[in-house]
Amino acid sequence: MREFLWSEEMADASVHCLLGVDWKDVLANTEFVKNRDGIEEVRNCHINVGTGKQLSIRECAEKIVREIGFRGRLLWDSTKPDGTMLKLTDVSKLHRLGWHHTIEIDEGIHRLFEWYKQGF
Q1: Nearest to 4 by CA among 72, 64, 43, 60
Q2: Could you list the mean pLDDT of each consecutive 10-residue stretch along the chain, which spans 120 residues?
């Protein structure tokens, strides 16, 4: 399973966080932990950027096949390792900070194929 995000939305989320988010809003769910020396450290202040949605590589490949009109067969080599099974980010903090993705996977595949057909 994988999570896909349109690259321009990654940039948009980054700008949103850099210019539109106050540090005190990020700290709302942040942990403060004392290290071995008794010094307080900030933990869990990162902001995940993503869609919070996932689909399998097979599902993604089938969407691409439909978009481009491929008439061949998809073949899978089940002897190869799958890698990390899940890579879904928790985007709840980003949503609380006011940013949500708008481009779904089908639209992203369509846009990418149109760009490709135009010769990049």
Answers
A1: 60
A2: 95 96 80 86 85 94 97 90 81 94 98 92
